[in-house]
Structure formats: C-alpha cells, structure tokens
Amino acid sequence: MLVMLDTFKTVKNLKNAGFSEEQAKSLTDALIEIQAASLEHLATKTDLMLTKTELKDEIADVRAEIAKLREDMARLEGRVNTKLSEMEGKFDKKFSDLEGRVNTKLSEMEGKFDKKFSDLEGRVNTKLSEMEGKFDKKFSDLEGKISGLEGKLDSKISDAKSDIIKWVAAMLIAQSAVIAALVKLL
Hints:
Helix content: over 70%
Largest sheet: none
Radius of gyration: 43 Å
Low-confidence stretches: none
Strand content: under 5%
Distance between the termini: 22 Å
Number of domains: 2
Number of strands: 0
Order of helices and strands: HHHH
Number of helices: 4
Structural class: mainly alpha
Shape: rod-shaped
C-alpha cells in the first residue's frame, strides 16, 4: 500500500521542532525525492509474475537438459558395457585359442614321447624332466601374462568409470551452479 508524505504536516512538525521555515521545506523536499526514488525501484505484481514465468521456463529448460544428460549417460553406460563385453569375449577367445595350442602341442609332445619311450626310456625320463621344467616356466610366464592382461583390463575399466564419474560430477556441479544462480535471481 502506497502512503504519500503529508508535506504541510511535515513542515509544521519540523518548524515546531526548531527548524527554520527554509530548513523544514528543504528537508521535506528531500524526503519527497527519497520517497519517489524508492518507489521507482519497487516491483509491480506484473513484474513479479513475469519473473516467475521466466524462472519457470528456465527451470523447465534445466530439467530438460538434466533429462537429456541422463539419457546421454545411459547411452554411454550401454556403450561402455558393450565394449567391456567385447573385450571379455576377445580375452576368452584368446585364452581358448592359447589353451588349444597348448593342448595340441602337449599332444604332439606326448606322441613323440610314446614313440621313443621303448628305446630310450632313461633318456626320455631325463628329457621329460627337463621339458616339465620348461613347461612349468612357460606356464608360469603365461599365468603372469594373463595376470598382467587382467590388471590392464581392470585398470582400463577403472579409468573409464573414473572418467564417467568425473564427467557426471562436473555436470552436477554445473547444474547446481545454474540452479543456484536461478535461485539468487528469485
């Protein structure tokens, strides 16, 4: 509710308080100017309704962006899961191929040992001991390589998850900043 300053009453009260006529009028004029300047900066109901509508539109836009980001994240997660499945399939295939080659090689070696066994039993036993040592070393090396591959795969998975989490965190921070800015505008 707008209250107007009663200039006559204000001048009269100031004069009664000991101000001169000129001082009372000057002070009253200053009060009128202050009141007018203050009224210029007041928002009307229409201004507030426009601001409210604009903020609702902005919030709707932000919500749409959030929904789009969630869709993007879901697609990214799907691609990551697909890639991980592909990598797992390749690893399984390579391991299976290696196992097949090892089994084939073992079968070949077993055939050779059986053929020479009757004539060279003593030498074969010695040779077999040597080959067992080599096989154990190769198998140990193979296990080390497999462990290394598993470590690399785990590292890549961890890096991908870390990158996704960083991206999501950055987007949440950006969205929070936008929402905070919108709240300040209210």
